DNA sequence: ATCGAAATAT
DNA sequence: AATATTTCGA
């Protein structure tokens, strides 16, 4: 029932001869519509009973391209039944009374559009667009791909807008006028995942867009894709390129709530396969990406740089990568590798890293201060323990990589986090997007980040940057040659702690990554005599 | 060529 | 004001 793009292309005088199934209990109205449709060279079969209509729809003898079904006020079930049964058939619902609920239900059940009676002639005439839309969206859906980020490049957008479906959707017709809200802008049900590509600057919809370009173009993307039924229109003029454009630019969205499970997709550049999202703090994020396709008119490709919107998901990936590498070893190129995000550049990462570090630098001293002020008499040990609170607070069953990360990262340098930030901000598995959401910089990077050197202060900082607090003064001689000894003590403590509370996640030092981090930190402190960590 | 910090841009 | 990009010296 769904035409293929090829069929459409070969359909010479499309939409003439389009077969319309008309289901309406009002016989008079039905025949009125019928004659209108026939005047438009459509071939119409009318029915007043959904069962008849259905059997006709499924019969082999008759082929329908589109259905117009009345959603009866008295017996809407029948209409819904039709909708549900005839999924493959693009179906326009007609209703005599405006009812949001009904409309929603229709759409939910797959209706392509819900129109109010009396149906205006233009809309009637334009029902062919649904067929086309369906045809292409069916094609578009097939190549499945997961993605992590949505990229919208100028050209792609422009292509969509201009070249996209030249005559079908833009068709030299006025893009948008006399559009009655809610009436004619429903995308085909088969493309529910049509991505809203929004501008970064637009209405601050940061959470939706990962990539965007300059602020033009995209605005009407969605509308362009949805069938325009109102405006005047010329005879459709199919072009194959149009179709291809169409499905090249398919955007797929997905949305799984993986709590702290880390994506392990091994994506290589060029391959599209990349997944995972997590819902954090009630913010379920959608991610998607426009499959990249070299613009045929490639001339001035990528004039402007894409702008990366660091959503929490992206950031999460980033953070994971940084952790995996250890803050010290985390350099843009490595991070980039680990992130495996297609389209992301080293520059993007570098920039983000810079910001990230900056935030940390600012956040940590504060925290440090607070901690000290709360427990002024803390010895090294107790403060150490205190620092671990949040870590320990992790419910044991954090599996897989996440557990690893949590364990590896939290230990020594887990930022003390004030009481509040401790549990709250650390909240399972992953922090929320810190920059935009957290007023208090404290939260920044608390979760699992080893703070930058200079921020943790068991010892006097040789860079003099320890927030004016010298913990070591209370417990340790401030000489750097004690560091070694001190480190041992720390480790001992951790071990002791772990042994006495076996039900808690293993803290620092009991897992290779942590050790590595510790050692690298130590070496930063000038202790190079410690043998390199074994992975 | 890459890194990171600073300067710019949005 | 926040945050992304570009530039520039090492």
Automatic annotation (TrEMBL):
Q: Where is the composition biased (Polar residues)?
A: 266-294
Question: Could you tell me which residue ranges the HTH myb-type domain spans?
Answer: 302-361
Q: Which PROSITE patterns match?
A: HTH_MYB, RESPONSE_REGULATORY
What is the annotated localization of this protein? Nucleus
Q: Which keywords does the record carry?
A: DNA-binding, Nucleus, Transcription, Transcription regulation, Two-component regulatory system
Stretches the record annotates as Disordered:
172-191, 206-232, 244-305
- State how it assembles: Binds the target DNA as a monomer.
Q: What is this protein called?
A: Two-component response regulator-like APRR2
Q: Which organism is it from?
A: Kalanchoe fedtschenkoi (Lavender scallops)
């Amino acid at each position: 029932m769904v035409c293929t793009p090829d069929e459409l292309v070969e359909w010479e005088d499309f939409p003439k001869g389009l077969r319309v199934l008309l289901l309406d209990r009002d016989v008079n109205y039905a025949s009125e519509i019928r004659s209108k449709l026939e005047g438009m060279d459509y071939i119409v079969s009318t029915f007043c009973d959904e069962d008849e209509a259905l059997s006709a729809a499924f019969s082999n003898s008759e082929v329908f391209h589109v259905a117009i079904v009345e959603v009866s006020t008295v017996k809407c079930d029948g209409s819904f039944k039709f909708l549900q049964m005839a999924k493959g058939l693009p179906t326009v619902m007609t209703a005599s009374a405006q009812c949001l609920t009904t409309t929603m239900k229709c759409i939910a059940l797959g209706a392509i559009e819900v129109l109010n009676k009396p149906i205006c002639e233009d809309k009637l005439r334009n029902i062919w667009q649904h067929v086309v839309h369906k045809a292409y969206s069916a094609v578009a859906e097939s190549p499945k791909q997961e993605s992590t980020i949505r990229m919208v490049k100028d050209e792609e957008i422009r292509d969509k807008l201009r070249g996209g479906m030249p005559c079908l959707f833009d068709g030299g017709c006025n893009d948008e006028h006399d559009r009655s809200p809610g009436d004619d802008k429903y995308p085909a049900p088969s493309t529910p995942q049509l991505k809203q590509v929004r501008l970064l600057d637009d209405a601050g919809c940061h959470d939706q867009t990962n990539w965007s370009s300059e602020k033009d173009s995209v605005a009407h993307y969605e509308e362009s894709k949805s069938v325009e039924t109102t405006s005047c229109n010329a005879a459709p003029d199919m072009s194959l390129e149009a179709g291809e454009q169409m499905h090249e630019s398919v955007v797929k969205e997905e949305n799984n709530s993986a709590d702290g499970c880390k994506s392990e997709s091994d994506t290589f550049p060029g391959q599209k396969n990349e997944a995972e999202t997590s819902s954090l703090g009630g913010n379920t994020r959608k991610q998607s990406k426009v499959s990249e396709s070299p613009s045929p008119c490639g001339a001035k490709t990528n004039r402007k740089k894409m702008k990366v919107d660091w959503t929490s998901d992206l950031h999460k990936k980033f953070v994971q990568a940084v952790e995996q590498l250890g803050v010290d070893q985390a350099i843009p190129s490595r991070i980039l590798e680990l992130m495996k995000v297609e389209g992301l550049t080293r520059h993007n990462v570098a920039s983000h890293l810079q910001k990230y570090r900056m935030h940390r630098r600012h956040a940590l001293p504060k925290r440090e201060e607070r901690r000290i002020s709360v427990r002024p008499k803390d010895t090294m040990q107790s403060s150490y323990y205190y620092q671990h609170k949040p870590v320990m607070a992790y419910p044991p069953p954090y599996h897989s990589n996440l557990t690893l990360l949590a364990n590896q990262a939290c230990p020594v340098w887990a930022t003390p986090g004030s009481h509040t930030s401790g549990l709250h901000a650390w909240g399972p598995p992953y922090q929320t997007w810190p920059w935009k959401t957290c007023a208090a910089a404290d939260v920044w990077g608390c979760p699992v980040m080893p703070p930058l050197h200079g921020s943790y202060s068991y010892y006097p900082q040789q860079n003099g940057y320890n927030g004016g607090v010298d913990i070591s003064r209370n417990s340790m001689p401030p000489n750097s040659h004690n560091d070694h000894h001190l480190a041992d003590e720390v480790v001992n403590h951790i071990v002791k702690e772990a042994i006495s509370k076996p039900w808690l996640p293993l803290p620092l030092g009991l897992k290779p990554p942590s050790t590595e981090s510790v050692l690298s930190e130590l070496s930063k402190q000038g202790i190079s005599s410690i043998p390199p960590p074994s992975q």
